[in-house]
Each structure stands twice: as structure tokens, then as C-alpha cells.
Amino acid sequence: MWFKNLAIYRFTEPFSLSPEELEQKLQQHAFRPCGGHDEFSFGWTAPLGKASDALVHANNGFMMICAKKEEKVIPASVINEMLQDKISEIEEREARKLAGKERTRIKDELIFDLLPRAFSFSKKTFAYIDSQGGWIVVDAASAKKAEDVLSLLRKCLGSLPVVPIGASIKPSPIMTQWLLNHDAPKDILIEDECELRSLEDEGGIIRCKRHDLNLPEIKNHLDNGKQVIKLAMSWADRLSFVLDESLAVKRLKFLDLIQEQAADIEAFDETEQFDVDFSIMSAELAQFFPRLLELFNVEDKA
């Protein structure tokens, strides 16, 4: 259940709903499987899966929610083959070339006919709300996936006054200085991965993985004007991650200090284990987010 990516948003107004009130709101868009001709279905599902039907799981003031998306899969090769056969049949029968709009209409009709027989797959995206700290955090590697979850939540609540943590922050110059001058703060350890980009339009990108970032070749790129847009680092021997230019956290790992803390707490079933993991993870990140803002000299106005 440990989050692997963090799309972090700050509330610009206090979030005042209780878990029970949020539960009622989410029921408006509870997940329902795809109907025969639905291309996809998107809604809220229980974070605890079969262990509980509740759409909101509260623990120590934090509220975990989970969005589920089911999509129908029709291979493009199947559609294209059937489409070409259909177009050829019509053109031969009517002795004319079909216009683009006609081809599009035929394709839409084919997809509609195929949907009831299509395979489907589903994915879950977890998020949690820290109403006291003023955060909502989505376990999503892409901004679009995170925004999809927030849009669904916004439909349920009517409004959702949040902004990305990096909306007014430019971490690239600071990360560049850390790498160039070897002067990262004491609680930040630079690791072995980075991505550099030229400031010029359509500038070149250099990606380094499992690479000594102290080597002269890295400094040469920085001296020639490239800036760090992704940097692997660890914080206080507690978290390891890749930070990008929008302050999105990728490939997050909770290090031994945290894992040992979780292992020391005995859980007797999946629900208790979920609570242990959620409690430790949310408490740890509640300490990390203010420090993340502080590292880039931005006052937390949440």
C-alpha cells in the first residue's frame, strides 16, 4: 500500500469535511462496471477492497480514497482490418471513394458493435487527504492521472480548491546549484541519477543513470548552461526518490528506518496491516512536505 509516486497538491482553503461527510459525497460517483457499450467506467471504490465497503478509510486524521478505472480493449489491428474490409466493400459496391467523414462514421459504428465483446482491464489509483496539514496526495506517476482523480473528486464535492505544490516553485536552479557546487543541505544526499536540459528552445536532454554525478563531464554540461530537471536523492536516511522540475516525487522508497518501524508493529490481518502502513506513511510524509517547501525557499501558505 506504500505510495510509489507523489503528485502533491495544497489546499488553498481548509478542508472541513469529516470522513462520514466525504463518504456521502463519494457515493455519488461510486464505481460501476462498464456496461455493454461503455468504453470505460471511472468511479470510487473501497480502499480496503473486499475487507470493507467504505469509500473513505480514516486513520489518525488522514483519509484514504481510491479511484478505479475500467477500460474496454479493442486491438487497433482488429479495428483497422475490419474497417478496411468494410470500406472496400462499400467502395466496390457504390463505385466511389468514401469521404473522410464517412470513414470516421463507419469506424465509430464498428467500435460500438465490438464493445460488448471486448476484453476489459481495470486500474486503481490511491490518494489521501491530510486536512490538518492542508495536503492531498495522489499516488500517480503522471500529472494527467493525478488530475483525473482530482477531477472526479471535484465532481463529487462541487469544488476542490487545490494547487500543485510546484505551481509557483522553480526547483531546477536550486538542484543545479546543489550538483554544480556540491552544497546540498545536510539532510539531502544526492544519488546516482539526473536529467539535464538546455535552456534553449527544444534544447538537448542528457539522462544519467547509475552514474557518478561528481564527475567532470557533469560539471561541463552544467557550466555550458544545462539545468537539472530531475535528480535522484534521499532525505534524512528516511526517503529515497527522484524529484522533477514540478516537485513531483517519482520512484519513492521508504528506507530501512521506516520499514523497521513498520515491521515492529504486529498486524493480525490485512486491515490492520493497511492501517499500520498508512499511519506510518502519512505521518512520515506530513514531516517531509514542509521540508520539501523549505528546501526550495518557499513559504508554506497552505
TrEMBL record:
GO molecular function: double-stranded DNA binding
Compartments it resides in: Cytoplasm, Nucleoid
GO biological process terms, semicolon-separated: DNA recombination; regulation of DNA recombination
UniProt key word Cytoplasm: yes
One GO term describing the cellular component: bacterial nucleoid
Keyword annotations from UniProtKB, A to Z: Cytoplasm, DNA recombination
Function text: May be involved in recombination.
Family statement drawn from the similarity comment of this UniProt entry: Belongs to the RdgC family.
This protein's name: Recombination-associated protein RdgC
Species in which this protein is naturally found: Methylomonas methanica (strain DSM 25384 / MC09)
